[in-house]
Automatic annotation (TrEMBL):
The organism of origin for this protein: human gut metagenome
Protein name: HEAT repeat domain-containing protein
InterPro entries referenced in this protein's UniProt entry, alphabetically: ARM-like, ARM-type_fold
SUPFAM superfamilies tied to this protein: ARM repeat
Length: 340
């Protein structure tokens, strides 16, 4: 009998014979047809209570690894916190599919025990699954992840990824400390984490880092600075960036930060920038209603920049102007000579 027919029959029986529901569902768990087993568990969702969860888990010793995986997935989907112990025990299963399913389910169940179990798997064969589970963990993870920044290097690197993804700003001090870690994977993870943990208070030390960064480090430190600046008003963004840029020997590194402010002062500063190529690249990222005309002028004055300038000009006017203005601006762009 085809799976869909068996499933329809089971659905009918579950609805019409409530006294047999548990027996019917437990029988389905022992079936060799995985599609049917999973369909039965899906149907069970309409009747789930603590007693049914306990009865299903009670079948655990009789189930294959594949069937146990299905049950663990179901427990996670149902947020069956009363069965957390069963799920956490399955993390140590020899079957990788079952263990991985248990990690995912633990993230859905939440709770301190699940949190500790997942953090303990940030170094090992289930690290990838543990990172994913902790990224969407059902509950507060800040204390555990900040503590994990003091663990072994592999755990540190994964925890750095997570504190950034979950924007745990109180981890910033530890992240900055790990920028000088002896292990390169940890140092790189700390650099990548800056954009997720920095606040306006970190602006000065980020600028200190930017002034002394290598070329490869610069983009990630700039990302951290952009995150810090985003929490300030545009005028303050410009003022603080301009002050640091004036005192820096690496002024071009501040151009993207000026561009981010979108102020007229920033545009003027970029137009007068000493590194014309870097200033132009930064201008291409500015979001401001006055930028299109600036880019159009640059396109006519610098043939080598024309393609990029006109492309960005067209993007901006298409996004921010009325239909009539769009037509006029695009007609204007079409009237320029092709780039050499």
């Amino acid at each position: 009998v085809r799976t869909n027919i068996r499933t329809a029959a089971l659905e009918l029986l579950l609805r019409t014979t409530p006294e047999q529901r548990t027996e019917l569902l437990l029988a389905a768990l022992g079936d060799n047809d995985r599609a049917y087993r999973c369909a039965a568990l899906t149907l069970a969702a309409d009747y789930t209570d603590e007693a049914l969860c306990a009865a299903i888990v009670g079948e655990w010793p009789k189930l294959t690894a594949e069937a146990r995986t299905d049950v663990v997935n179901w427990l996670g989907d149902r947020h069956a916190v009363s069965q957390t112990a069963t799920v956490l025990a399955a993390i140590d299963a020899s079957d990788h599919g079952l263990a991985a399913a248990a990690v995912r389910a633990a993230g859905r169940l939440g709770g301190q025990e699940a949190l500790e179990a997942l953090i303990a798997r940030l170094n090992g064969p289930l690290a990838e699954e543990a990172v994913a589970a902790l990224a969407s963990f059902n509950g507060q993870v800040d204390d555990g992840l900040v503590a994990a920044l003091d663990a072994d290097p592999v755990t540190q690197a994964n925890a750095l990824q997570l504190v950034a993804r979950r924007r745990i700003t109180r981890a910033a001090d530890r992240v900055f400390a790990l920028l000088d870690a002896g292990q390169e994977p940890v140092r790189q993870a700390a650099l990548a984490a800056l954009a997720g943990v920095t606040t306006a208070a970190d602006f000065p030390r980020l600028c200190d880092r930017l002034d002394n960064a290598t070329e490869s480090e610069t983009p990630q430190i700039q990302a951290g600075l952009l995150n810090a600046l985003a929490q300030m008003a545009p005028e303050e963004q410009y003022t603080r960036t301009a002050e640091r840029m004036a005192a820096s020997a690496e002024k071009a590194r501040y151009y993207p930060l000026l561009a981010h402010t979108g102020t007229q002062e920033a545009i003027d500063a970029l137009l007068g920038g000493g590194d014309r190529k870097a200033a132009f690249a930064a201008l291409l990222t500015v979001e401001s209603p006055v930028v299109p005309e600036v880019l159009f002028s640059l396109a006519t004055e610098h043939p080598e920049w024309k393609d990029e300038a006109i492309t960005r000009y067209t993007e901006l006017v298409t996004a921010n102007r009325t239909p009539e203005e769009q037509v006029a601006c695009c007609t204007k762009a079409l009237g320029t000579d092709p780039a050499p």
